[in-house]
Write a structure and sequence with these properties.
The structure is a single chain. With 297 residues, the protein is an all-alpha fold. It has a single domain, classed as Penicillin binding protein transpeptidase fold. 51% of the residues lie in helices and 2% in strands. It has a three-stranded mixed β-sheet with strand order 1-3-2, covered by helices on one side. A hairpin with a 2-residue loop joins strand 2 and strand 3. Helix 5 packs across helix 7 and helix 9 packs across helix 10. It is globular and about 75 Å long. The termini are far apart.
Length: 297
């Protein structure tokens, strides 16, 4: 082909690509979420809740959505501690991304000979639940990273954790700690005990198949692991969930970090009986406040 004809074609193609990119950026800018507004305003819905509603409508099934927002202090410290221990132990010290979790996910992927999955921090999960989809395409991951940085910049850690515990899925059509506590245990989230906190925290990776009442061996093993971690490190975890944001905290115990060998944390150990955890239970007041560390057994 004549070069004199190729050059104009390349220029038009490049101009078209730049134009499409500018249109895309304009649309993203116009529809970008008001992240800073979440510091004072609770979300009225989430991307995941709307996706659930759409699936129910497409299947001509009733919505049966259970969701009720409650403040941070109305959620039991037992659930907060279990979630931090199981989902993101570095939450109060990282800036939205956990290098330890990333290394752990890569190591597990190498051992299992598959693409890496997971490694999302609580802040990343908040961004995904509120505004994105479960897809793993690169564009979605870029938006997640940008929204994660904005969440960390505009919101405190307690506020991010409050949003997470209020929007995350705990079962089919069950969103947030309050709805989960009432659906599974017939009590408010402020009154959840240690065993109940572990049961809910263990359901987070697979909420539609792992939840209280399920006898899955993998689920129950995960519950047991969370119980043991919370039991051994209760004082540290209680300080985490009661932190004001400026309070200095010690580094996490080594066996709470991902993939650190802990001979006492094997999955074949029996589940701790409720009586073993009752001694550490919080007599949660109606506001769910965390007691002082020195008052915890």
């Amino acid at each position: 082909m004549d070069r004199r004809r190729v050059r104009p074609l390349l220029r038009w193609s490049l101009a078209g690509a730049v134009g499409l990119l500018l249109v895309f950026l304009l649309v993203e800018w116009l529809t970008w979420p008001d992240v800073a507004g979440l510091a004072e305003t609770n979300p009225t819905t989430t991307a995941f809740i709307e996706a659930y509603r759409e699936r129910r409508r497409d299947a001509n099934e009733p919505e049966t959505l259970q969701w009720r927002w409650v403040p941070y202090d109305h959620i039991s410290a037992n659930l907060k501690a279990a979630v931090i221990a199981s989902e993101d132990i570095e939450f109060f010290s990282h800036d939205g991304f956990s290098t330890a979790e990333m290394r752990a996910a890569l190591r597990k992927a190498w051992e299992e000979k598959r693409l890496p999955r997971g490694a999302s921090t609580i802040t990343q999960q908040v961004a995904k639940n509120l505004w994105l989809s479960p897809s793993r395409n690169p564009g979605r991951k870029v938006k997640e990273a940008l929204l994660t940085k904005q969440l960390e910049r505009h919101l405190g850690k307690r506020r991010i954790l409050e949003i997470y515990l209020n929007v995350v899925e705990f079962g089919r059509g069950i969103y947030g700690a309050e709805a989960a506590a009432r659906a599974y245990f017939g009590k408010p989230a402020a009154a959840l005990g240690p065993r109940e906190g572990a049961l809910l925290a263990a359901s987070l990776p697979r909420p539609t198949s792992w939840h209280p009442g399920v006898g899955s061996r993998g689920y129950l093993a995960t519950v047991a692991r969370i119980e043991r971690r919370v039991l051994r490190h209760w004082e540290y975890l209680a300080r985490l969930v009661g932190a004001t944001g400026g309070e200095p905290l010690p580094p996490p115990p080594a066996d709470l970090l991902p993939f650190v060998l802990d001979p006492e944390d094997t999955l074949d150990r029996p589940i701790l009986p409720d009586s073993a955890l009752d001694s550490l239970a919080i007599d949660a007041p109606t506001d769910g406040a965390v007691p002082p560390v020195d008052s915890i057994p």
